[in-house]
Design goal:
Mean pLDDT: 90
Number of strands: 4
Strand order of the largest sheet: 2-1-3-4
Shape: globular
Radius of gyration: 16 Å
Largest sheet: 4 strands, parallel
Structural class: alpha/beta
Order of helices and strands: HEHEHEHHEH
Helix content: 40-55%
């Protein structure tokens, strides 16, 4: 329960708990950061997540976090357009007829995220076709492998 509460408390870069997290997820909006953090909490891991928002610098604290616990999340641009449009529809938003503009903005967001992932030297998982459970297990495997490699070095 403590790990789930941690995930809620440090959702979307809120608060100063990144250093206390077991896992820090970094990705653009709609890459399942929040549900993934909560699921990891259910599994007993303290997970925090940080959104990558076009034109906004990440929190300074992210750059000071142990790199071994940071995992980037990415998604296929076309899949992200679908997800965001579906969300707008379910929230009562009108249809937007700017497909090319939307896609270009998404490419720019994903490019900004990719640059941040490289700067953080973190592994990146493409969540385009994965369930939350599959993504969580990949995240855990990657974090554990990195820790083992670091211990051996």
């Amino acid at each position: 329960m403590e790990a789930i509460e941690f995930a809620v408390r440090f959702d979307d870069g809120v608060g100063r708990g990144l250093r206390d997290a077991d896992i820090v997820l970094v990705g653009v909006s709609r890459t399942s950061k929040t549900p993934l953090s909560i699921y990891l909490g259910y599994l007993g891991y303290k997970a925090a997540n940080v959104p990558v928002v076009k034109g906004i610098k990440p929190p300074k604290e992210l750059l000071d976090v142990d790199q071994l616990k940071i995992v980037g999340l990415t998604i296929d641009p076309n899949r992200l357009v679908e997800i965001r449009r579906a969300r707008v529809r379910t929230m009562g938003g009108g249809a937007r007829n700017r497909q090319d503009g939307e896609l270009m903005e998404i490419y720019e967001e994903l490019d900004q995220a990719s640059k941040l992932h490289r700067r953080l030297r973190c592994p990146v998982i493409d969540i385009s076709e994965l369930s939350i459970e599959e993504t969580a297990h990949r995240v855990l495997r990657v974090v554990e492998e990195r820790r083992q490699e670091h211990t051996r070095a």
